[in-house]
Specification:
By secondary structure, this protein is mostly helical. It has five helices and no strands. It is extended and about 60 Å long. The two termini are 39 Å apart.
């Protein structure tokens, strides 16, 4: 009985997360933010290889190598920029913005709890 409840709870969470990220407005904003934070380097690398421009290849490769290091702040920056675009382009989409605010508040609270435990 307990396993079934946990399984159903997990299914509901996964479904909720999927539909949250399947939102076309959020996908558009995340894509635009990704182009700003990462996409330029892929384009620069492609153009550098295509046009045989060494400095383009070097700059893009160095930035891409930095991106593949775990825990780079670029991922957080991409989400922040996407939230900004979501507010800018779709200010009436209160459902998505509300979910993002709730997620941010929960993450902030968890961070405060960890900090309190660490200070003890």
């Amino acid at each position: 009985m307990m396993k079934k409840m946990k399984k159903d709870n997990l299914k509901n969470k996964i479904k909720k997360i999927f539909w949250f990220f399947a939102n076309p407005r959020l996908l558009f904003c995340l894509g635009l933010a990704w182009l700003i934070t990462n996409g330029w380097s892929y384009l620069l690398l492609g153009l550098g290889i295509l046009l045989d421009v060494t400095w383009m290849q070097t700059v893009a490769s160095a930035y891409l190598a930095l991106l593949w290091i775990p825990f780079t702040p670029e991922k957080i920056l991409t989400v922040i920029i996407a939230m900004f675009f979501l507010k800018l382009f779709f200010p009436k989409d209160q459902k998505t913005l509300g979910l993002l605010k709730d997620m941010f508040a929960k993450a902030k609270e968890k961070h405060k709890e960890k900090k309190r435990k660490k200070d003890r």
